[in-house]
Design brief:
The protein is α/β, with parallel strands linked by helices. It has 3 domains: 324 residues, ABC transporter type 1, transmembrane domain (ABC transporter transmembrane region fold), CATH 1.20.1560; 174 residues, Rossmann fold; 70 residues, 3-Layer(aba) Sandwich (Rossmann fold). Helices cover 62% and strands 10% of the residues. It has 22 helices and 10 strands. Helix 5 runs antiparallel to helix 7, helix 9 runs antiparallel to helix 11 and helix 11 packs across helix 13. The longest helix has 53 residues. The protein is elongated, with a radius of gyration of 36 Å. The two termini are 50 Å apart. Keywords: ATP-binding, Membrane, Nucleotide-binding, Transmembrane, Transmembrane helix. This is ABC transporter ATP-binding protein. It is a multi-pass membrane protein. It comes from Nostoc cf. commune SO-36.
Length: 601
């Protein structure tokens, strides 16, 4: 559980982790913030312009503008109108600038964060995926990153503009108002800010729970959609609908808890805002009446306070978006911070020069939190030879394949290719040297030709067709509605099991690896399809190191050597005829499968 320990050790807040990740976006963040501040300053100019207009009407030749030598009221209003036009134009331009910058920033961050998270996910070892659900990972890569984008689109700008307005108002109030009026007007501010922080702290666990519940819900949906055929065949629709309803209900209740807290914020803040605004309205009005401040300044402050205090009412909504975004950010950053346990080696491997000599040297392996699967196993495979590994289910056969491909690393011992420890090899070079045809064939949603060329993306149409012919897939492909351009559907659901298997073999033929692994390649097909597949396998295994994992012993009886595994160890080895004479596990399996009572053919 190394990765989970490391994740717990990161004590930084989600915002700190996001800022650290977004270090390369600092110039764009600075530009967007600058335009947000400029727009806020310009947005606060109209109250000042209103105050100046009131000042002109009341003071006339003694007004603020008159001090600059413009005595005529008409020209004072003309100048004020010109200033208003300029302010409005630049306010509109700055709004366009900050809106465009923040939205583009949100798009850039969510795009790069999603790609970085996905690329990191691809590098993680197979054990990580065994402990994680597909729906949960999809939730992180989609919903959580979208939550962050939503906040950056508007929430960040709102916080900056409220903060800027707050600073301007405080500075203006202290310069214009008597101290006692300023204090009375500003009195609710500390309570509003304190209440907002408390509110934020209480919302944080609520939205963390919401994100967890939506992850469970997405997992259930993804699992059920993938298994829809099984659900239908077992008439389990009502059962699964009830289970989904349980997950959805838990998500709804989690959201309701957050909403209950969120909804209470605005009414409370509204009352605090009322105290500040009423204080300024009464005390400021009395100060203007007694001529301690001008009527124009009083008008300016009334509008400015209203412009600041009322946005604070909606600060709860901004904090709500912020907490949703931070809860999602934590999940994304936890994924990015998950350590990659299987790292690539620094030794390059030229695929064309690989001979294909494979050796397992005293290897031991256990899956995470599980018993030992393979114990001190040694196995030598000469270059260009075909060997087979057989044994009962759970004996460790397929685990050997996963270890050779470095989906997992051995606990002890080593695995070598051409005498080189595979942990020293570049991981991409290692896997390019190995072709895998497994029982569980995965085809991507796309054309037949694209699936054959998967991994060999530069292959020509001629090479694809040639590979299909060797795999005895060409005839059935040409009978499909659009031939090689036929869409196979998600996971290849439009094709039969045998057709998918032959496309997988054609994919391996096109890859032309020096080492070929056949993991139960014919176990799920009928006898006729098996015969066709076996003919194609006989062709492609020539002069190529081949490891065949099989239950059907008839498919591997002509191998150069057959290894029998039992409880993670090799207990028998030899050619088919020699193993029958041993009268051991292999002979018993052969009798069961062939129906023979004796040990000879």
């Amino acid at each position: 559980m190394k990765s989970k320990v490391n994740l717990v050790a990161d004590k930084r807040s989600p915002l700190q982790r996001l800022l650290n990740y977004g270090d390369k976006y600092r110039p764009q963040i600075f530009q967007a913030t600058t335009y947000s501040v400029i727009n806020t300053i310009l947005d606060l100019a109209p109250p000042w312009l209103i105050g100046v207009a009131v000042d002109i009407l009341v003071q006339q030749q003694d007004s603020f503008i008159a001090k600059f030598g413009i005595k005529e009221v008409v020209w004072q209003f003309a100048l004020l109108s010109l200033i208003t036009i300029i302010v409005w134009i630049f306010e509109s331009l700055s709004q366009y600038a900050y809106d465009r910058l923040w939205r583009n920033l949100a798009q850039n961050i969510q795009h790069n964060l999603r790609l970085d998270a996905y690329n990191h996910l691809q590098e993680l070892e197979s054990a990580y995926f065994e402990d994680s659900s597909t729906g949960g990972l999809m939730s992180i890569l989609s919903d959580d990153i979208n939550q962050l984008e939503d906040f950056l689109n508007g929430g960040a700008n709102e916080i900056i503009q409220v903060t800027t307005s707050f600073i301007i108002l405080i500075c203006g109030a202290f310069l214009i108002l008597p101290l006692n009026i300023t204090i009375a007007a500003m009195l609710p501010m500390p309570f509003i800010l304190w209440g907002s922080l408390i509110y934020q702290k209480r919302l944080e666990p609520c939205y963390a729970d919401v994100r967890e519940k939506v992850s469970f819900l997405n997992s259930r949906l993804a699992n059920n959609i993938s298994g829809i055929t099984t659900i239908k065949s077992f008439t389990a629709e009502n059962y699964e609908s009830a289970r989904l309803a349980t997950e959805s209900e838990a998500y709804k209740k989690s959201n309701a808890k957050a909403i209950k807290l969120s909804a209470a914020f605005v009414p409370v803040i509204r009352m605090l805002v009322l105290v500040g605004f009423t204080s300024l309205l009464f005390l400021g009005g009395m100060a203007a009446y007694s001529r301690k401040i001008s009527i124009g300044n009083y008008s300016v402050l009334l509008v400015l306070v209203q412009r600041l205090l009322w946005p604070l009412v909606f600060l709860g909504e901004t904090f709500d978006r912020y907490q949703r975004a931070m809860a999602s950010t934590k999940r994304v950053m936890d994924l990015l911070d998950t350590p990659i346990e299987i790292t690539t080696g620094d030794m390059s491997l030229v695929v064309e020069q690989v001979q294909g000599e494979v050796e397992f040297k005293n290897i031991t392996f256990a899956y995470r939190n599980s018993r030992t699967i393979i114990k001190d196993l040694s196995l030598y495979i000469p270059a260009g030879k075909t060997i087979a590994v057989v044994g009962s289910t759970g004996s460790g056969k397929s685990t050997l394949v996963k270890l050779l491909l470095r989906f997992y690393d051995v606990s002890n011992g080593s695995i070598t290719i051409d005498g080189i420890d595979i942990q020293k090899l570049n991981l991409s070079d290692l896997r390019r040297s190995i072709g895998l045809v497994s029982q569980d064939v995965f085809l991507f949603h796309g054309t037949v030709g694209e699936n054959i060329a998967y991994g060999t993306f530069e292959a020509t149409d001629e090479a694809i067709i040639n590979a299909a012919k060797i795999a005895e897939a060409h005839d059935f492909i040409t009978q499909l509605p659009q031939g090689y351009e036929t869409i196979v559907g998600e996971r290849g659901q439009k094709l039969s099991g045998g057709q998918r298997q032959r496309i997988a073999i054609a994919r391996a033929v096109l890859k032309n690896p020096p080492i070929l692994i056949l993991d139960e390649a014919t176990s799920a097909v009928d006898n006729e399809t098996e015969a066709a597949i076996q003919r194609s396998l006989d062709k492609i295994t020539q002069n190529r190191t081949t490891i065949a994992i099989a239950h059907r012993l008839s498919t591997i009886r002509h191998s150069h050597c057959i290894y029998v595994m039992d409880h993670g160890q090799i207990v028998e080895q030899g050619k088919h005829e020699d193993l029958l004479l041993l009268d051991g596990i292999y002979a018993s399996l052969w009798c069961v499968q062939s129906g023979y009572l004796g040990l000879t053919q």
